[in-house]
Amino acid sequence: MKKVTYFPGCSAHGTSEEFDMTVKMVMKSLDVQMEEIPDWNCCGATSAHSLSETLAYALPLRNLVLAEKLDNATMAIPCASCYQRLKVTKVHMDDNPELARKINSTVIDEGTYKGKVAVKSMLQYCYEDIGLEAIKSKVTKSLAGMKLACYYGCLLTRPKNITHFDSPEYPMSMDHIVEALGAKATEFDYKTECCGASFSISDTEVVINLSSQILEMARESGAHAIVVACPLCQSNLDMRQPDIEKHTGKKINLPIFYFTQLMALAFGMSQKDMMFNKHIVPVEGALANIGKIEPEPEKVKKPRKAVEAESEVE
Amino acid sequence: MARVGVFVCFCGANIADFVDVPKVVEEAKRIREVKFAIDYKYMCSDPGQQQIRDAITQYRLTSIVVAACSPRMHEKTFRKALSDAGMNPYLLEVANIREHSSWVHQKDKKAATEKASDLVRMAVAKSIANEQLHEISVPVTKRALVIGGGIAGIQAALDIADARIPVVLVEKSPSIGGKMAQLDETFPTLDCSQCILTPKMVDVASHPYIELIPYAEVLELEGFVGNYKAKIRKKASYVNFKTCTGCGTCWQKCPVKVPNEYNMGIDKRKAIYTPFPQAVPNKPVIDAAHCTMLTKGKCGICAKVCEKGSIDYKMQDEIIEREIGAVVVATGYDLWDPKPYEEYGVGRFKDIITSLEFERMVSANGPTNGVPVRPSDGKVPKNVVFIKCIGSRDEAKGIEYCSKICCMYTTKHTILLHHKVHDSHAYVFYMDIRAAGKGYEEFVKKAQVDTAATYLRGRVSKIYKKGDKLIVRGEDAQIGQVVEVVADLVVLATAVIPPKDNPDLARLLGVSYDKYGYMSEAHPKLRPVETAKAGIFLAGCTQAPKDIPDTVAQASACAAKVCGIFSGDTMKKDPMISTVNNEYCTGCQNCVKVCPYGAIVTEEVPMGHGSKEMRTVAKINEGVCQGCGSCVAVCRSMAISLAGFTDLQIINEIVSI
């Protein structure tokens, strides 16, 4: 049995309850025991780092210090913003012991930061620590027939020198995971464009603009649905979709899944627990594609000279 | 007892306005060893020099101090004056009271005068310990080695050979020609590259004074200026060049296809090949990595069809040696791999190509017969986006410097596109247009009018695919907005970088190189052709990115330098070099490590007189030593001495003030 420290973040208890729920289901099925950080606090996003450097570091650092009390090597975080704040803090503290001491003094009651817990996003944890083989082995109901556009958003792989995970511009880890589940990942050039993030509240127009382009490109890629690993991406693309449709006058109708929801689905778990009822865009249409496999166009093999085939280097 | 003469110069007003020259003379006269001291308006003039010559005989002087300008200016002049009077020229000492005193202390005449007197005192003290030195004469092997057969190497080799000096030209690939042979037309005149280059290539091959060694590399270089010995590896070509007629039957019949380097991999060549039809020498080589006869022992077709029996699968690499006197390094450049531009989809989108790939496509002898096509579907592109500074001026992903040639060749490419595809449209994303050069700005202006290309000042942030088009999103900084261009083809002007093995070659030659891997010139302004190592010169992009005119100019300059070295049978060399006192040398070899010229080696000497046991001591190669004194500074047993700057001379200087 694997053990991992879990930092749910505030959205897991609200808008992304279905992410939290499916993460727990999937981890249990994969034989991973999750230990939630006791008495964790807000990561500070996005207000803290716009206002005070000390606060922006101190809030995540308290969580990092608390996490060290659990005896796990790795912490997995479902929310991209929480992940970003904790990872930035960890990297900066590890690089600059002087700064670490200074910030640590503000939360010294909780203990001294040692930097021994690795910070990973839930996507990174699934991809690196659990692995595609383990995921594949749990699939009982293949998602074959589904075409999915994997959307990573702006934070999961950026900046490269902080995250050290996947490509900052064209990541593939989530694509590999959904393909392990049997689905087909589409070629989707907008997978790291910004969805508008928290402008959803302060300047909705921005989100309508940016998210509509992402949805349109996903639709053009031939996807039946979009897969995400970030609560804010999910809520922007899903919740704002009716507004976007009204704004552009085009029907989009792309449900937005968390990748863990699809894992749970492929693992043969009950759809009821996946909380599809919380989605704004209905999921049924997209899910109906499961099992509808298009026949692959037969490849015509070109006869080649034996020698050429052997040594041609492409 | 030393008898020193002191000659203080007014340098017109340069010294006299700020230094009390008669006072300096008066002070000098108070020094015990000074038997004669005088001032004069211009000591460097003939009457000035005459005073020195007269005083030498009249006062039987044993050393001379001239207090004037920098020795860099007139040391040679005054040394000659000493020689003319029958005195050893190295008994001269120059006290620099102009640059070191009058010019820098113009506000305080008293202090400047005192400092000038101090400088004279030091020079007098030093000169007392001056020894008679004699110029070193080094024999010269009059043969030059040119490394690299691109336009730089070709030009240098031809210029040297035309002066009837034998040249060994070593080229690593099977043909000379280099990058220029891959170009279609050249800016700013749109001369056909092949038409101006290939005659020169033929001249190289037929020149009686040039020994062309293709498909070879330099392994070792030993010795010093005028007396180098180079070890060269001739790679096995598996073809006997002596009997091969270059008929081409072998490569027509060869069944193995390999991506063609000459055409940037756009088409295929065979495993036995000449790089291009105009290759010099026009003899094929077998690519051992891909030939199935050599890798698996199967095939052998080329040997069967060769009427001359020139194919030899058992051929081995051959090491040859050449004695040479000077080296011209002309290894050219490589192009930066744009893979880090992930946001452009480099590697994912087939229709993003590099400028050299575009160049090959629009070339008359290119893989697409001179018509640009999209690699994805073979269609002729209508909208082509050119993006400059890919890797250049990019500290985050590439290198800091400007590659210098991309602005111009991109302009050329817009013209070539316009010529080849009449209804096409070019878009150019640029940071700046750097068109400094004869006729360059005019070329850019004319191209902009003639082709009606759209120039967008700003960087491209993303390229994505929509249908079969590429959407190029970038900033148009002049309107302050993000723009998107629908493109059929995107061409990246990738940065010029030094060849990957340049640092290895530099170390092998004993030449310094910069942080990028370019070889370093001796002085960025005044010695741009020489390296810090005597007798080794740089031509073309091996030193820094440059275009064809600059490259050719530098190559010819190299030739002039080489011919200068070879102008006599021996070379005169300054005697101010280091010597090792074997009695004191402990063999620690610290001097070997610090010598910037690789002038110090070790030798074995007997432990004592008649002893059979040996010990290691340092040995200085007087041909290579430049007299910098680094070895003297690190020698902890004071075994090394620099002629003209002995410990005694330096201590005398210090004690005198």
Can you put this structure into words, describing what you see?
The complex is a heterodimer of chains A (314) and B (657). Helix content of chain A is 45%, strand content 10%. Chain A is α/β, with parallel strands linked by helices. Chain A is globular and about 65 Å long. Mean pLDDT of chain A is 92; it is low at 306-314. Chain B folds into four domains: 4-128, Rossmann fold (3-Layer(aba) Sandwich), CATH 3.40.50; 144-330 and 501-565, FAD/NAD(P)-binding domain (3-Layer(bba) Sandwich), CATH 3.50.50; 334-497, 3-Layer(bba) Sandwich (FAD/NAD(P)-binding domain); 574-656, Alpha-Beta Plaits (2-Layer Sandwich), CATH 3.30.70.20. Chain B contains 19 helices and 34 strands. The interface between A and B is medium-sized, with 17 and 20 residues.
Overall tally of domains of chain A: 2
Radius of gyration of chain B: 32 Å
Helix/strand-derived category of chain B reads alpha/beta
Quote the CATH topology of the largest domain in chain B: FAD/NAD(P)-binding domain
Tally of contiguous helical segments of chain A? 16
The number of E-state strands of chain B comes to 34
Q: In whole angstroms, how far apart are the ends of chain B?
A: 21 Å
Strand percentage of chain B lies at 15-25%
Q: Outline the low-pLDDT stretches of chain A.
A: 306-314
Rough outline of chain A: globular
The termini of chain A sit apart by: 44 Å
Profile the largest sheet of chain A.
4 strands, parallel
Helical element count of chain B? Answer: 19
Mean pLDDT of chain B: 95
